[in-house]
């Protein structure tokens, strides 16, 4: 297959134009001051067929040569204790840990701390943004979701999938967690190898994978888009919900995800430094993505119904109410056109909760100190994570 033929094939499609000319994309351009064009398309599009080869080699050397539990223990040992050039380990292991144990000169851990504090002090709004804007909005990009579909993520269930995403996000957004050998660093390396394991499995077992249209499974360009979701899209969602942030916090959020992306093996030239770059990069990527298909709708409804399946809340009326609130936030944050494509249910008084939240946030910011908000946000987010982990790790919940 000629990999040079990739074009911005959906640039003239209604879903692309509407998003960038009248919808959330237009708002992102105004928010970021981005200057969008296709002049750098070829510079980025080649990464649609690029993957983390180092991660893939480790999976072949470690996971495919012994039982999975033993391989996992071996990797954990490398992560927590480090790897040196003199160790008797595969070259792939030396390559990955040579990269991740060597902190690049551009990394500023004080700036990362500011980004982590923003994630914590926005408390439940951070979790709403992740779920009802970043995650469900991502389902509108049909090709991006193909690895989820072919690895049968729907069978695993939204509760488990949400728990895993939350576990990763919380652990990489705590202060000092990205220092070498710390918890966030560990989550980044493990996630990187999970991606490689999934990619190799897809290539091996799913013969109908359409590389020409879908790119390589979990390719570098799709990874870039995913992590722009955690930075640019997340940040704009917080703003929509009435949260303010300082220039330092904003820089810190992008810096945090740039370093997480580096640890995950995403090429550095794909990792934006700020909202302007992120919007310009995202614009190019969206031009190769069709809008939602039937799989997108299934994923979106699986996430919406997670509230009904999740036993954290004891009573049915509580679960139904939580689902209603998530639906309200989804309509408030996403374009109506996207919600209609994903077949998000229409509900009464859908703006009441998110608009009330905006008003509350303005008052909360003026009356409670930043330090107190960070402390409470961290506590509340850890409580939500603990509840999810108790359900999914200590039971046979599916």
From TrEMBL:
Record-level Gene Ontology MF annotations: oxidoreductase activity
Occurrences of domain ER-bound oxygenase mpaB/mpaB'/Rubber oxygenase catalytic (ranges): 156-345
UniProt name for this protein: ER-bound oxygenase mpaB/mpaB'/Rubber oxygenase catalytic domain-containing protein
Organism per entry: Epilithonimonas lactis
């Amino acid at each position: 297959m000629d990999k040079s033929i990739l074009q911005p094939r959906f640039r003239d499609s209604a879903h692309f134009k509407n998003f960038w000319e009248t919808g959330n994309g237009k708002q992102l351009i105004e928010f970021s001051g981005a200057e969008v064009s296709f002049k750098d398309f070829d510079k980025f599009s080649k990464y649609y067929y690029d993957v983390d080869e180092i991660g893939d080699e480790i999976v072949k050397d470690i996971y495919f040569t012994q039982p999975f539990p033993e391989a996992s223990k071996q990797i954990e040992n490398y992560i927590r204790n480090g790897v040196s050039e003199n160790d008797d380990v595969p070259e792939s292991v030396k390559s990955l840990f040579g990269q991740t144990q060597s902190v690049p000169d551009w990394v500023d851990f004080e700036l990362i701390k500011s980004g982590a504090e923003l994630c914590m002090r926005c408390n439940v709004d951070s979790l709403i943004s992740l779920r009802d804007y970043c995650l469900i909005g991502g389902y509108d990009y049909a090709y991006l979701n193909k690895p989820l579909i072919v690895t049968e993520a729907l069978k695993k269930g939204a509760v488990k999938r949400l728990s895993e995403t939350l576990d990763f996000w919380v652990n990489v957004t705590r202060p000092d967690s990205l220092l070498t050998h710390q918890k966030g660093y560990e989550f980044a390396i493990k996630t990187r190898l999970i991606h490689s394991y999934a990619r190799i499995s897809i290539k091996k077992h799913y013969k109908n994978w359409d590389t020409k249209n879908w790119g390589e499974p979990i390719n570098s360009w799709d990874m870039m888009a995913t992590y722009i979701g955690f930075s640019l899209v997340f940040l704009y969602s917080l703003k929509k919900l009435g949260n303010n942030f300082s220039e330092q916090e904003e820089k810190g959020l992008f810096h945090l995800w740039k370093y997480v992306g580096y640890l995950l093996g995403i090429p550095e030239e794909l990792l934006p430094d700020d909202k302007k770059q992120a919007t310009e990069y995202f614009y190019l990527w969206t031009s190769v993505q069709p809008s939602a298909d039937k799989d997108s709708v299934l994923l979106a409804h699986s996430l919406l119904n997670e509230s009904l399946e999740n036993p954290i809340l004891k009573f049915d009326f509580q679960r139904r109410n939580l689902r209603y609130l998530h639906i309200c936030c989804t309509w408030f944050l996403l374009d109506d056109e996207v919600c209609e494509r994903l077949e998000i249910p229409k509900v009464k008084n859908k703006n009441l909760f998110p608009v009330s939240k905006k008003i509350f946030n303005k008052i909360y910011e003026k009356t409670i100190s930043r330090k107190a908000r960070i402390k409470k946000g961290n506590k509340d987010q850890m409580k939500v994570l603990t509840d999810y982990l108790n359900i999914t790790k200590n039971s046979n919940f599916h």
